[in-house]
Design brief:
Order of helices and strands: EEHEHHHEEHEEHHEHEHHHH
Largest sheet: 6 strands, mixed
Number of helices: 12
Number of domains: 2
CATH architecture of the largest domain: Alpha-Beta Complex
CATH superfamily of the largest domain: 2-enoyl-CoA Hydratase, Chain A, domain 1
Number of strands: 9
Strand order of the largest sheet: 1-2-3-4-6-9
Strand content: 5-15%
Shape: globular
CATH topology of the largest domain: 2-enoyl-CoA Hydratase, Chain A, domain 1
Distance between the termini: 28 Å
Helix content: 40-55%
């Protein structure tokens, strides 16, 4: 499909969504949210797509929500229209693995979108923050929850209450991003990570992602039980048999996703 605010493409088994409102630093508005959801839906239905990359552009990942669109909204409009929340729900529960390429600014809703993804690759010049306090509101797309889980209470308090920004290296040291690379290599590195994931068993990848996400929601004992159930289930998959045979035969496995 053709979109106005995002660019969707495929490279091999990787779906790529590029945010494309450079004139406003990729500010998230209703149109972009609906197009992001549509592009994600398309890639979810496409069995050839095994991993999805979401990237910004030279102006950055996303400067956050489009304040011009939000300024006159009422509580009823926010609640009834749902505004951005279907996007957070979609990305947070997306069944296929997702990789973010964080160039430049990832602020407010932009950082919340990034934190909803599974793996983040950041440019050395990336700046992360939750500046909502400056306009009299708080993060509403998971910022108070995901950021706190990622970097701890004290750092999250500092960022959310005072608009303190975080650089890429600090974000990596705290576990918020996985890799830090030169700005010009950021999207390429994210694609490399995605391609590596796309070459694995789609069945095992899906269940592994489920198990890791449950680690944030369950106690250790319940989480271990959940992991073991998924582990047992995978022995019924064709991919597990193919993977083990390939290992024993010293060849590259050919996973079918079954």
């Amino acid at each position: 499909m053709d979109y106005e605010t995002v660019i969707a493409s495929k490279e091999g088994n990787v779906g790529v969504i590029t945010l494309n409102r450079p004139q406003v630093r990729n500010a998230l508005n209703t149109k972009m949210v609906s197009e992001l959801i549509a592009a994600l839906d398309d890639f979810e239905k496409d069995e050839s797509v095994r991993c999805v990359v979401i990237a910004g552009n030279d102006r950055g990942f996303s400067g956050g929500a489009d304040i011009k669109e939000m300024a006159d909204m009422t509580t009823v409009q926010m609640v009834m229209g749902e505004h951005f929340f279907p996007l957070w729900e979609k990305v947070g529960r997306y069944p296929k693995p997702t990789v973010g390429a964080i160039t430049g600014y990832a602020l407010g809703g932009g950082l919340e979108l990034a934190m909803s993804l599974d793996i983040l690759v950041a440019a050395e010049t990336a700046q992360l923050g939750q500046p909502e306090i400056n306009i009299g509101v708080i993060p509403g797309g998971g910022g108070t929850q995901r950021l706190t889980r990622a970097v701890g209470k004290s750092k999250a308090m500092e960022m959310i209450l005072s608009d303190a920004r975080m650089g890429a290296q600090e974000a990596k040291s705290l576990g918020l991003v996985s890799r830090v690379v030169p700005a010009e290599a950021c999207v390429g590195e994210a694609m490399k990570v995605a391609a590596e994931i796309a070459g694995k068993s789609p069945v095992a990848i899906k269940l592994a992602k489920m198990a890791i996400n449950k680690a944030f929601e369950m106690g250790l004992s319940d989480g271990l039980d959940f992991e073991r159930e998924l582990f047992y289930m995978l022995f019924a998959s064709e991919d597990s048999k193919e993977g083990m045979r390939a290992f024993l035969e010293k060849r590259k496995p050919e996973f079918s996703g079954r």
